[in-house]
Write a structure and sequence with these properties.
Largest sheet: 6 strands, parallel
CATH architecture of the largest domain: 3-Layer(aba) Sandwich
Structural class: alpha/beta
CATH superfamily of the largest domain: Glycogen Phosphorylase B
Order of helices and strands: EHEHEHEHEHHEHEHEHEHEHEH
Low-confidence stretches: none
Radius of gyration: 20 Å
Helix content: 25-40%
Number of strands: 11
Number of helices: 12
Length: about 300
């Protein structure tokens, strides 16, 4: 029986989530759970904690080929699937005595669509089509406990709000979010979960001090593992292109994602749960890295699509 290792080089939570459908396809093809090796920043252990297709999650150290080989070699893998064109990861797989290594063509991935590249690679290796979107498995008792703790009920619209992002050019102005929340809260009773970390405390505090603050709950002091059951108990997500939006989508929430400085073709087209908004005068095809369009996201378009989402 094959024993397989999946190695993920990308550091982002969104990248990891997008790859989950590929990981599941490999597991089903070899008829056993996999070991995933990923960088700590992906929070792979927390996100994949309850996944029946995952046997173990290992940390991918940024430096030290020999240290990584020491982790891998004793486990006697006979297959590796490397979601990267890295020569370093290829050598790690070889030095770990893995006989069957599947990897992107070396030095080939620059400027390519992340989602499409991964999907085409997996489908070619496995000779099958990947039809299902990424899915994060959730422990039902944890979700039930989270719903009780935060009083998440059908009496309110429970909304994950991804106000954070990996950089300031990818964040819609926080005052726009406050205005948006105020308007929709007048139409529907709402509870807003502010999805951001400790580094986003200034943004979170601005919302909490506003007129909408009493309807908000912050994630800033919670771990990703603690937030996942809360997200799973909610219904909707309104967000910048951020890891919390991708987690929400994989937990089957309906998501509205704002793309202002990243490519929606790569990070917004992989799931039917995601609706996309891009800056004025941009299209889904033209918007990408260095679009710098955060001030060209139409407030009225976001409001109208939000109301459609909540209906």
């Amino acid at each position: 029986m094959s024993k397989a290792l999946v190695i993920i080089k990308s550091m982002g939570i969104g990248d990891l989530v997008i790859l989950i459908a590929n990981i599941h396809a490999i597991s089903k093809a070899i008829n056993r759970p996999l070991v995933v090796m990923a960088q700590k920043n992906t929070h792979a252990y927390e996100i994949l904690k309850h996944d029946p297709h995952i046997e173990e999650v290992l940390d991918l150290d940024r430096k030290g080929i020999l240290n990584i080989v020491k982790k891998i070699k004793p486990k006697n893998f006979d297959q590796s699937y490397i979601y990267s064109d890295s020569l370093r990861l290829y050598l790690i797989s070889k030095f770990s005595n893995i006989k069957n290594n599947f990897q992107y063509k070396l030095f080939s991935k620059k400027r390519k669509n992340f989602y499409k590249t991964a999907k085409e690679f997996t489908e070619k290796v496995l000779n099958l089509k990947i039809e299902s979107p990424p899915k994060i498995f959730l422990d039902k008792s944890e979700a039930d406990n989270a719903a009780k703790k935060f009083n998440i009920t059908k009496k309110t619209k429970n909304i994950i709000c991804g106000i954070s992002a990996s950089g300031p050019t990818k964040r819609w102005d926080i005052k726009n979010y406050i205005k948006l929340f105020e308007i929709i809260n007048r139409k529907y009773p709402c509870k807003f979960f502010l999805a951001g970390g400790a580094k986003d405390q200034i943004l979170i505090d601005e919302i909490l001090k506003s007129s909408i603050g009493e309807y908000c709950i912050s994630f800033s002091k919670m771990t990703i593992q603690e937030t996942i059951p809360v997200i799973g108990a909610c219904d909707f997500c309104i967000s910048n292109d951020t890891g919390f939006a991708h987690i929400s989508s994989a937990l089957n929430l309906k998501c509205l994602m704002l793309f202002m400085d990243s490519p929606p073709l790569a990070y917004g087209s992989y799931s039917k749960n995601i609706s996309v908004i891009v800056p004025k005068d941009e299209t889904v095809e033209s918007c990408g890295h260095n679009t710098r369009g955060k001030d060209k996201i139409s407030f009225d378009e976001v409001l109208n699509k939000t109301l459609e989402l909540l209906n």
